[in-house]
Amino acid sequence: MPLSEKQKKHLRRLAHSLQPIVMLGNAGLTDAVANELERALSDHELVKVSARVSDRDGRNEVLAALATRTTSELVQRVGHVGVFYRPRKALSKIILPD
Predict the structure, then answer these.
(1) How many domains does the chain have?
(2) Is 98 among the domain residues?
């Protein structure tokens, strides 16, 4: 599900006002965090995740692994926050531009 730059820009605009729903702490990527993001993506489609990992490379790895594990797309990463998108199978709330 690769997104075009136009679609990513649209999703970033929608995500700007959102607050992080899922928090990653010192324990890193656990099953509980992955399950929580799965639930949040099923409910909201577009979710912010706060990753409090100390170094930039570790943060990038954790967010990329989280995207792979939840079959979602990492739309944006700014500082400690990543934005994830996964469309619903039925009745999608977010309409992406072509």
Answers:
(1) 1
(2) no
Burial environment of residue 20 by CB neighbours within 10 A (0 to 12, 13 to 18, 19 or more)? middle
Residue-range definition of the domain harbouring residue 74: 5-85
41-81 residue pLDDT tens: 999 999 999 999 888 898 999 999 999 999 999 999 999 99
Domain assignment present for residue 28? The answer is yes
Question: Rounded to two decimals, what is the model's pTM?
Answer: 0.92
Measured CA to CA, the distance from residue 46 to residue 86 in angstroms comes to: 7
Residue with tokens 């649209």: 10
Following DSSP, what letter does each residue of the chain receive, concatenated? -PPPHHHHHHHHHHHTTPPP-EEE-TT-S-HHHHHHHHHHHHHHSEEEEEE--SSHHHHHHHHHHHHHHTT-EEEEEETTEEEEE---SSS-SPPPP-
Give the pLDDT band (50/70/90) at residue 1.
low
